[in-house]
């Protein structure tokens, strides 16, 4: 495993992140503690150090399992990322949302479950469209100054909110968001409209969740295998099936699995990207780890780009119009290219 810097920081994390939403057997699915330990062993033995969880995953069981595991291993080796925002207490009206009260309470409970004195990366889990972004960043900065959190990050939030937050943090001397977690894959490229350009501008690392489209891009549904994606899911529409067929064809050509191709595509888009790979079986993780040995050619990337491309809308499509037409505006784009 190679290591990458997480955003505009000196924090070194593995090029793949282990997603632990499936640690625990609540809701009738997931990995028990023994299997979860084996998965983390396999990840660490491969050089992986970046673990992703949340206060709400398996009603806190995911954090508890990680806490028990890390307690008996080198805590400083691991980079633990967790999240706050989603409701975890039905009797407390402030046990959800992005507000400072919920953040402070959630962090204290996460620290207890994780059996650690500090969280390496704290994500705002999902934007509530209520709390002022300055309240979020000031509270995160306070936690960082207290030593309870090392770095701030954000997930599932509009680009304009993140941009406003990081600009305000820079002005005020607060800690900025260094990572952005969003759904991103060959069948979900809409973050390319606003979120990913914003992340590139601020030097943020993107940590895609569902980089395999809920398993669709693994090709298992083409083979008739069952999974957690329901047959009526929009992830199984005709367009996505065509994308998956192209992924499978390239995988067959390279002699690798379709998952390797889909994950490597997500790592090869010209910006800092660390996919989150979930696993409830050791075999799943071991297979996905082989991704780091796969190389996609320019021709492969072009095929995948063509079959999965989206309409960027305005102004994205306007900027992408052909050069001849744009040159009618006085050669503006020629001048921009020369400056670049």
Concise overview:
The protein is α/β, with parallel strands linked by helices and 340 residues long. The chain has helices at 33-45, 61-71, 100-114, 133-146, 159-172, 195-201, 238-254, 258-266, 282-289, 298-308, 313-319, 323-327, 332-339; strands at residues 3-5, 12-14, 17-19, 50-52, 79-84, 119-124, 149-155, 177-181, 205-206, 276-278. β4, α2 and β5 form a beta-alpha-beta unit.
Q: What do these coordinates show?
A:
With about 350 residues, the protein is an alpha/beta fold. The chain folds into two domains: about 5-310, TIM Barrel (Alpha-Beta Barrel), CATH 3.20.20; about 310-340, no CATH class. It is about 40% helix and about 10% strand. The strands form two sheets. Strands 9-8-7-6-5-4-3-10 form an eight-stranded parallel sheet, with helices on one face. The longest helix is centred in the last third of the chain and has 17 residues, at about 240-255. It comes from Mucilaginibacter corticis. Keywords: Oxidoreductase. InterPro entries: AKR_Detox_Biosynth, NAD(P)_OxRdtase_dom_sf, NADP_OxRdtase_dom. GO terms for molecular function: oxidoreductase activity.
Count of structural domains: 2
Content of β-strand: 5-15%
Q: H/E series, N to C?
A: EEEHEHEHEHEHEHEHHEHHHHH
Which blocks of ≥5 consecutive residues have pLDDT under 50? none
Helical content class: 40-55%
Helical run tally: 13
């Amino acid at each position: 495993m190679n290591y990458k810097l997480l955003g505009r920081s000196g924090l070194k994390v593995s090029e793949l992140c282990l997603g632990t939403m499936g640690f625990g057997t609540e809701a009738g699915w997931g990995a028990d503690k023994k299997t979860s330990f084996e998965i983390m062993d396999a990840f660490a033995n491969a050089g992986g150090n970046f673990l992703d969880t949340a206060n709400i995953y398996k009603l806190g069981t995911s954090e508890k399992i990680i806490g028990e595991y890390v307690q008996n291993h080198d805590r400083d080796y691991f980079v633990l990322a967790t999240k706050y925002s989603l409701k975890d207490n039905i009797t407390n009206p402030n046990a959800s949302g992005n507000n400072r009260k919920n953040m402070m309470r959630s962090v204290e409970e996460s620290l207890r479950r994780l059996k650690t004195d500090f969280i390496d990366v704290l994500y705002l889990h999902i934007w509530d469209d209520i709390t002022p972004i300055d309240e979020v960043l000031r509270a995160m900065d306070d936690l960082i100054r207290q030593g309870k959190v090392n770095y701030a990050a954000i997930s599932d939030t509009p680009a304009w909110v993140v941009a406003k937050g990081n600009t305000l943090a820079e002005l005020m001397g607060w800690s900025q968001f260094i990572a952005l977690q969003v759904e991103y894959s060959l069948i979900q490229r809409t973050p390319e409209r606003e979120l990913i350009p914003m992340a590139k501008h601020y030097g943020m690392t993107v940590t895609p969740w569902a980089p395999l489209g809920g398993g669709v891009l693994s090709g298992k549904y083409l083979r008739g295998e069952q999974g957690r994606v329901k047959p009526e899911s929009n992830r199984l529409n005709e367009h996505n099936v065509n994308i998956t067929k192209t992924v499978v064809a390239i995988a067959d050509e390279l002699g690798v699995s379709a998952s390797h191709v889909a994950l490597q595509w997500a790592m090869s888009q010209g910006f800092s990207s660390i996919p989150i790979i979930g696993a409830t079986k050791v075999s799943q993780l071991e297979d996905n780890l082989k991704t780091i040995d796969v190389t996609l050619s320019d021709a492969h990337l072009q095929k995948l780009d063509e079959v999965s491309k989206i309409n960027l809308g305005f102004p994205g499509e306007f900027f992408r119009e052909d050069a001849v037409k744009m040159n009618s505006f006085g050669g503006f784009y020629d001048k921009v290219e020369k400056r670049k």
